[in-house]
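just leaving the lab so this will be short. what follows is a protein written twice so to speak, once as letters and once as C-alpha cells for the fold. can you read through it and tell me how you think this chain folds. thanks a lot i owe you, the record is right below.

___
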Amino acid sequence: MSTPSPIRIAAVLSTEYRGRLMSHAREVNFREGARIFDEGTRADSFWIVRSGTVTLEIPVPGRRPTPIESLGPGELVGWSWLFPPYVWQLGAEAMTPVRAYEFDATTVRMLMDADPAFGSALGHWVGRVLALRLQQTRTRLLDTYAPRLAAS
C-alpha cells in the first residue's frame, strides 16, 4: 500500500519555503497505536513525519476503520487544516513509534496570507497531497468493496 511519495516536502517545496515553514515546527512523538486525529474532530494542527509510519483510515459503520494509505518520512499528515470548516475528513494512527514535526494550522494560514507566493506554494503542495489521497481512498474502497458487489 505504501510507495515512494512524489509529494514529500523536499520534492515539492523550495529550500526557502521549507525553511520558512520549518521555522514554525515543534517536534513531537507518538507511541505505536496512538490516535493522531479522528474524523470529524477539529483540524487545528498538521504534521510532517520524521520517522515511523502513520496510517490514514476511513471509518466504516459496523466495521473496523479501512486503512487508506501509509505515510512515512517527509510526508504530510493532514490537509483538512487548510480548508474550512477545519474538520478532519479521515482518521490517523501511529502504526509504529512516530517522530514528527507539528505545525499550528492558524499560524501557518496567517503566514500563507501574509506572503502570497509562499501561500501559493504551500497551497499547491497541499492540493497535490489531497489529489493523491483522494485517489488512494478511491482505490482502497474499490479494493475493499468491489469484490462484494461483483459477488452479489
Summary: The CA atoms of residues 60 and 66 lie 7 Å apart.
